[in-house]
Every structure is written in structure tokens, then in C-alpha cells.
Design brief:
Layout lengths: L13 H70 L4 H21 L6 H9 L1
Length: 124
């Protein structure tokens, strides 16, 4: 006699239980081996590419920092030449360029949340 789920409602014999359990165990073992092999392959791929990506990340961060300082200094020099305010434009805009460079590095390194992230977090 079968129940609603299609399985027999009578007691299973111990040999059938053991065979069923053994087949499920083999299936689980095979799946676990596949997942482990995939994970190991991903780890190997990441470790070989992480060296070059680390250098690339360092170059990007240093370039963004230096670019902020150069742009601030260049704008300060231009403002000083245009308005005739000898060192003050250069000093102020160089400091602003330094601050912008630091902020760009922090943002690029992922240490600072953007305002859109803050707004979406506040809505939840």
C-alpha cells in the first residue's frame, strides 16, 4: 500500500535501508569532492593573480594621491598668476589637493562608504 508521497507505508527491510543510505552517502561524497576540487582551483587562481593585482592596486592608489596634489598645486599656481595673490592661492589649493588625494585613496581602497550606501542602509 502506498501513501500520498508514493513511498510504501510498510516497514523497510534493514538491507534496503542500508543500500539506500549507502547510495546517498556515495552521492554526497562525490558532490563534496567536486566542491572541494572547485574551491581549490579557485584558490589557486586567486593566489596567482593576487600578486599582480596587488601591484596594480598600489599603483592606482599612489597615482590618485599624486594626481590630487598636482591638480591642487597647478590650480593654486594658476590662481596666483591670475589674481596676483603670491603664495596664498598655491598654499590653499595645494592643501585642498592633498585632502582630495587622501579622500580619493580612502574611497578607492574601500574604507569609506559612499553617500548612496548610507542612504540605502538608512532605508532598511
Amino acid at each position: 500500500m502506498t501513501g500520498q508521497d508514493g513511498k510504501s507505508s510498510g516497514p523497510e527491510r534493514p538491507a534496503e535501508k542500508d543500500a539506500s543510505l549507502e547510495s546517498r552517502l556515495k552521492s554526497l561524497d562525490a558532490g563534496l569532492k567536486r566542491a572541494t576540487n572547485q574551491t581549490e582551483a579557485e584558490i589557486r587562481r586567486e593566489s596567482t593573480s593576487s600578486d599582480s593585482s596587488g601591484i596594480g592596486q598600489a599603483m592606482r592608489l599612489s597615482t590618485e594621491f599624486v594626481a590630487g596634489i598636482i591638480v591642487g598645486g597647478g590650480l593654486g599656481w594658476a590662481v596666483d598668476r591670475w589674481l596676483g595673490t603670491a603664495p596664498f592661492g598655491m598654499i590653499v589649493l595645494l592643501m585642498l589637493g592633498f585632502g582630495a588625494g587622501v579622500m580619493n585613496v580612502v574611497r578607492a581602497a574601500g574604507l569609506m562608504k559612499s553617500r548612496t550606501d548610507d542612504k540605502s542602509g538608512a532605508q532598511n
